[in-house]
Amino acid sequence: MDIATLLGIIVAFGLVIFAIGSGISSFIDPPSLMIVVGGTVGVLLVGYPLKNALGVIGVALKTFMYKVDTGADVIAKLVELAQTVRKDGILALESEVKNIDNAFMAKGLQMAIDGQEPNVIEEILYMEMDKIAERHSRGADMFTSLGTYAPSMGMIGTLVGLVLMLQNMSDPSSIGPSMSIALLTTFYGALIANILCLPMAGKLKTRSKEELLIHEIILVGIQSLVVGENPRIMEQKLLGYLPPKERKSSFE
């Protein structure tokens, strides 16, 4: 689980609530929530296919619960496989594939075992990486769109509140509720956009880059396996993808 996402949301909302203090009840207005939250969901359904819009909750969960192999672990595993290939040949990996949790690595290794040429493996795996990047981009774009829709619905709510207020200037008792809608819808829209949607879009983009980097390391490593490259040379090549602080040789 990504503690940073949960902690960030708690801290951001907590500081806002702390600043509001004992007047929190004044900031709870169901009509304003209906305009912003309901309106934002409605606009999302207009902008995206139903299947994608319904999957937005699952995409949001990926910012909280996400598992990705570290670059160091992946390189160590590839070096281990390279040593097996150097000793017993590529077919010796047949029994190893079943124990690999990373589906992308398992697919590449199976193609190598089946005798596919390096250029064929590269073409197929790069195509899969492109599709993965496309899916990730779609999820991040939805949250970027939500971060745009929410403040816009807040502005619409503000206009609604102002119109209601101006229509009932002769009734002082109606001015307060109308002004509440006018101000709180903008407040809700800003909160949803800047504490939830836009930061989540940024986190999804970061996760995508991390996963694609791991996939590129795997791709290069499998190509080295196929051509029988020396494990030490392969390791040095793959460690170049990592920051200096994360580089650790399996031969030390």
TrEMBL record:
Supply the Pfam families for this chain: MotA_ExbB
Assigned protein family? Belongs to the MotA family.
Please give the InterPro entries that the UniProt record associates with this protein. Flag_MotA_CS, MotA-like, MotA_ExbB_proton_chnl
Which ranges does the record mark as transmembrane?
7-28, 34-61, 146-167, 179-201
Q: Name one GO cellular component term.
A: plasma membrane
Keyword set, alphabetical order: Cell membrane, Flagellar rotation, Membrane, Transmembrane, Transmembrane helix, Transport
Query: Where does it mainly reside?
Result: membrane
Record's protein name: Motility protein A
User: Where found in the cell?
Assistant: Cell membrane
Output the PROSITE patterns linked to this UniProt entry.
Answer: MOTA
Indicate the segments forming the MotA/TolQ/ExbB proton channel domain, all copies: 98-213
Source organism per UniProt: Mariprofundus erugo
Q: How does it sit in the membrane?
A: Multi-pass membrane protein
Tell me the GO BP annotations in alphabetical order: bacterial-type flagellum-dependent swarming motility; chemotaxis
